[in-house]
Amino acid sequence: MADGSSTWVATPNIALIKYWGRRDAALNLPCNSSISITLGEEVQTKTSVDFDPKLARDELFLNGKKAGAEETKRAARVLNVVREKAGIAAKARVVSSNNFPTKAGIASSASGFAALACASCDAAGLKMGRKELSILARMGSGSACRSVLGGFVEWKAGKQRGGRDSYSVQLAQKSHWKGIVDIVAITDAGRKKIGSEKGMDITVKTSKLFKKRLLEVPSRLSRMRRAIRERDFEALAALCMEDSDSMHASMAESRPPIVYLNETSKKIMRVVREMNARGGRSVAGYTFDAGPNAHVITRKKDAKKVGAMLRKIRGVERLFTCGVGGGPRKAAY
Ligand code: PMV
After folding, report:
1. For the chain, what is the mean pLDDT?
2. Cβ–Cβ under 8 Å, residues 239 and 269
3. What residues are in contact with ligand 1 under a 6 Å CB criterion?
4. Fewer CB within 10 A of the terminal residue: the chain, N end or C end?
């Protein structure tokens, strides 16, 4: 029996084939399917939900500070669905904290809404499967629907209007390919200037390159599925760089242009390419979300060398090395 409160830990995911562009903004339905790796608990969000009949309205605390109306409203999109399904009226106190910088291109929204979906269902006494949790987390932020599963994950774009077929499935468990690591290089820990939802809506409306991107993505998705299935790192690294470059080119071609990368991000891209060329093999692949921080995907055997190389780049403030994660789990408060 639920006692009205629950705490869950979830982790961000890094998209190898990106979600950028919505066909339905209210339901966060994407224009294309995407593939990601759920990260290990080196980077994590811990979220507690307490449904309390004494509260007059929902309250959200992010990293120790009371959140503003916009963020609280976004959390309520998830809480409202849970209340409706569970048949409860009580408002909720949500306390969430990250051990990594918020809104800096490491998807704190993904881990945040995945943890919120799991904790709020549990606190309300709802038993939901991964598909339902994925759809619920998607209401908060699109990419969050991938963080309800561990390992290697595909978010199926779906075709239906109501989005019942737009949810994530696991392509492979974390044990399938334990040797993969993501070295996150922080180049700017500040908040990003333009939120991803606003940014992607501008790209869909104004970028011609984005239309071309949509035609290319299905082939990259199937090649990425194969690379994961066969643990083909050369292909994974090449495809993730290709897809990140394609997304950022579409953004840059939008009107007004949307630019998330900074000079240090570009330096990292050059250094990774040079390192691969020098080694005559893919030592690493870079990918960037809606921010200037690099995710450098490599293998454990090369991680030390890649980390040392990144540390030498001026403008790299900090590195987090993350393995592949197992997905959300219930935690002590
Ligand atoms: O889920 P959102 O609204 O934070 O958008 C995420 C978009 C990217 O991180 C840039 C790509 C992705 O697939 O995670």
Report:
1. 95
2. no
3. 15, 18-20, 34, 107, 109, 141-143, 196-197, 289-290
4. N
Q: Which CATH superfamily is domain 180-322 in?
A: GHMP kinase, C-terminal domain (3.30.70.890)
> Do residues 45 and 112 touch, judged by C-beta distance below 8 A?
yes
Q: What is the pLDDT of residue 330?
A: 97
3-state secondary structure of 188: coil
Mutation choice for ligand 1 from 13, 184, 196, CB with most ligand atoms inside 8 A: 196
Say which range, 1-5, 32-36, 168-172, 283-287, has the weakest mean pLDDT: 1-5
- Distance, in Å, from the CA atom of 90 to the CA atom of 125, rounded to the nearest integer, reads 13
- CATH of 5-177, picked from 3.30.200.20, 3.30.450.40, 3.40.1500.20, 3.30.230.10, is 3.30.230.10
